[in-house]
Write a structure and sequence with these properties.
alpha/beta, 2,3-Dihydroxybiphenyl 1,2-Dioxygenase, domain 1, 3 domains, 4-stranded mixed β-sheet, 4 helices, 8 strands, 32% strand, globular, Glyas_Bleomycin-R_OHBP_Dase
Length: 208
């Protein structure tokens, strides 16, 4: 009888080990599948239509970097000085093109371009800055951040930034008209007069 129980316990232990190995293998397969789906969804070539980037033509690219990179917290993923022959002129055009990402390197990318980089006295750099507000013909860059309280003091100190509204609570109707969405909303002009909102969501976009 003792031998019988010993054999039974041995079989149960082996079965338990097999179940654990199977469960671990299944977990690994699920994680791999989910990872591949996430990677694929981030690849713009797998999407029918992607809003890839908005590029801002700027007067002083260093001022723009002080805002978008240093204060808002975007990451530079491309930075090149490009030289080209300038049509109708005996000089070459020198431009600097920068791409910055938020959380994704394929979508929601912000471009900065100075078409007369290295020529600070060029008329393009002295063109008057227009602060026209929320009127037709003007676009708005909208950022969502979970660190608005940390980034806002840096935004206020960025050179050339003009504050419209400090962060304040604003509510919007929920998607499908269900409930409300609370957002801390701030508004300002960047150094070139582009409108920017730096916001923080306080409620999920979809009803829970």
């Amino acid at each position: 009888m003792q031998v019988y129980y010993q054999n039974l316990m041995g079989c149960l232990i082996k079965s338990g080990r097999s179940l654990i190995k199977s469960a671990l293998a299944l977990t690994f397969i699920i994680i791999s599948l989910l990872s591949s789906q996430v990677s694929a969804s981030e690849d713009p070539f797998d999407e029918k239509l992607v809003l890839r980037r908005q590029t801002l033509v700027v007067r002083d690219i260093e001022k723009s970097l002080a805002l978008y990179r240093d204060a808002i917290g975007m990451e530079v993923i491309y930075d090149q000085v490009i030289k080209r022959p300038l049509s109708g002129s005996d000089r070459e055009q020198v431009l600097r093109l920068i791409f910055l990402k938020a959380s994704n390197q394929y979508t929601g990318v912000l471009g900065l371009v100075d078409y007369e980089y290295g020529y600070p006295d060029h008329p393009a750099h002295t063109k008057p800055i227009r602060h026209e507000g929320f009127t037709p013909g003007n676009s708005i860059l909208v950022f969502n951040s979970n660190e608005l309280s940390e980034s806002w003091p840096l935004i206020e100190k960025s050179p050339g930034v003009k504050i419209i509204t400090k962060p304040k609570l604003t509510t919007y109707p929920g998607y499908g008209g269900e409930g409300i969405i609370r957002v801390m909303v701030s508004k300002f002009y960047d150094p070139d007069g582009f409108l920017v909102e730096m916001n923080q969501l306080l409620d999920p976009l979809e009803p829970q």
